[in-house]
User: Which sequence fits this backbone?
């Protein structure tokens, strides 16, 4: 059995360059490369028969478990009808139905849908649409974007430009948009009762930036409620409410990047709902297809659509296309995913699972090397630190988070810490026993890399 894994590993390493990976770590055996043969529910199974609980929903895409039969069947049905067709000049039922259902589910006023095929592409579309809108409106001086410190919106050049993670951004800086970066409403280290006041206070920096620069700003882009890749930094919905107010005051677009937070992850179908706001543009991807196929959608207000509408000769067109725009297989997967939301009260079930995650996570709250246990919906996060009282982090070079990753795999749980921030963001179908097991492995993993126990 053991040989099968190494057989595939050897062949992989001969040709494949994996994302977000220093390949030397695989060659040197610092990080295992695991050939996965199949997956069902929350479980991945490798070629040697070992199983791993997917505590990160395979980069936050999976909602209803791997191999979910209804989605698989919908894709198979669609593949036998129409696998793909150019989406310029042609259309099809899965895309039409999906656009109808997404606009019906989204916050009010988001009436138009532009499809793309991954999260970064959706962010590119939203940035270009906002920028181009102001050009079409005769306000070409509105060229700048405002973004939050610690934000992440993808890794294509435009999306990377409005992100603020040095690790991803530094080398490419000469190629990137320079946004106005505002200190984020980062509630790490605070009890939930203080999140609202802290988020309100943090908004002063945003208000000031908009007051000073609004005449040249096209849009503000944010990850609503949780800045995920930036370390699962969470904040209170009041920040979004205040932001909506100031964007309205100055007529600036608000772009909600719900690529990670959308589809029930934060407790509501979309995180923006908790602030009772509608953004001008909303980017969706990841969970949109239940984690089966790449697809993205940018939902927008009618006003944006109208700014590009007119006789061809007026030159107002939005010229942006991807070959796989509106792919019917992906749209069919998305429709089947929305059916699952309709069939069961997923959000109510998630609330129960989230409460269970909180209960288990709280057992770690007094741990000498955990600074902060925080939660928003189906995301719990823990910061691992050297010294709790002084909140001293471990030197990054020690790669302790990586130690937890390795420990997790050795004990059958796929965690993928962000530096020393460990988090769980499991598929919604995780059972109470599996929640317990997942959090227990987090605890033991942190123990192993902090105290060596
Ligand atoms: N925005 C957010 C908030 C994300 O979390 C991600 C992916 N982690 C992206 C954009 C980029 O999506 P993709 O990886 O599909 O390009």
Assistant:
């Amino acid at each position: 059995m053991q040989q099968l894994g190494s057989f595939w590993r050897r062949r992989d390493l001969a040709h494949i360059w994996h994302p977000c990976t220093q390949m030397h770590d695989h060659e040197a055996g610092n990080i295992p490369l695991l050939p996965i043969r199949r997956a069902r529910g929350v479980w991945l199974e490798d070629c040697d028969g070992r199983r791993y609980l997917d505590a990160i929903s395979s980069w936050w895409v999976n909602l209803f478990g791997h191999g979910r039969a209804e989605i698989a069947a919908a894709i198979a049905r669609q593949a036998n009808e129409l696998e793909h067709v150019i989406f310029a000049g042609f259309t099809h039922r899965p895309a039409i139905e999906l656009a109808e259902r997404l606009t019906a589910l989204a916050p009010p006023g988001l009436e138009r849908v532009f499809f793309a095929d991954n999260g970064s592409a959706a962010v590119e579309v939203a940035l270009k649409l906002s920028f181009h809108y102001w050009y079409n409106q005769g306000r070409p001086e509105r060229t700048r974007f405002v973004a939050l410190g610690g934000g992440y919106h993808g890794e294509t050049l435009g999306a990377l430009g409005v992100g603020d993670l040095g690790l991803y951004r530094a080398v490419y800086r000469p190629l990137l948009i320079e946004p106005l970066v505002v200190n984020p409403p980062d509630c790490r280290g605070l009890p939930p009762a203080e999140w609202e006041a802290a988020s309100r206070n943090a908004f002063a920096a945003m208000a000031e930036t908009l007051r000073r620069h609004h005449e040249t700003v096209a849009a503000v882009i944010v990850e609503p409620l949780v800045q995920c890749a930036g370390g699962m930094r969470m904040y209170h919905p009041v920040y979004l409410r205040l932001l909506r107010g100031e964007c309205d005051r100055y007529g600036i677009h608000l772009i909600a990047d719900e690529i990670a937070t959308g589809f029930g992850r934060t407790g509501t179908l979309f995180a923006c709902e908790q602030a009772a706001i509608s953004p001008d543009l909303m980017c969706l991807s990841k969970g949109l297809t239940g984690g089966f196929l790449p697809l993205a959608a940018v939902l927008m207000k009618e006003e944006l659509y109208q700014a590009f509408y007119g006789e061809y000769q007026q030159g107002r067109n939005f010229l942006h296309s991807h070959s796989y725009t509106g792919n019917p297989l992906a749209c069919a997967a998305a429709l089947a995913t929305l059916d699952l939301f309709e069939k069961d009260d997923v959000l109510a079930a998630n609330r129960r699972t989230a409460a269970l995650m909180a209960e288990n996570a709280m057992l770690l709250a007094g741990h000498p090397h955990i600074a902060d246990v925080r939660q928003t919906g189906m995301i719990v996060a823990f910061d691992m630190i050297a010294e709790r009282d002084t909140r001293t982090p471990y030197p990054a070079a020690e790669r302790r988070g990586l130690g937890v990753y390795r420990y997790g795999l050795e004990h059958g749980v796929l965690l993928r810490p962000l530096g020393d921030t460990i988090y769980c963001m499991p598929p919604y179908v995780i059972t109470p026993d599996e929640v317990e097991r997942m959090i227990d492995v987090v605890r033991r993993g942190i123990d192993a890399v902090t105290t060596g126990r």
Summary: The radius of gyration is 22 Å. The chain has 15 helices and 16 strands.
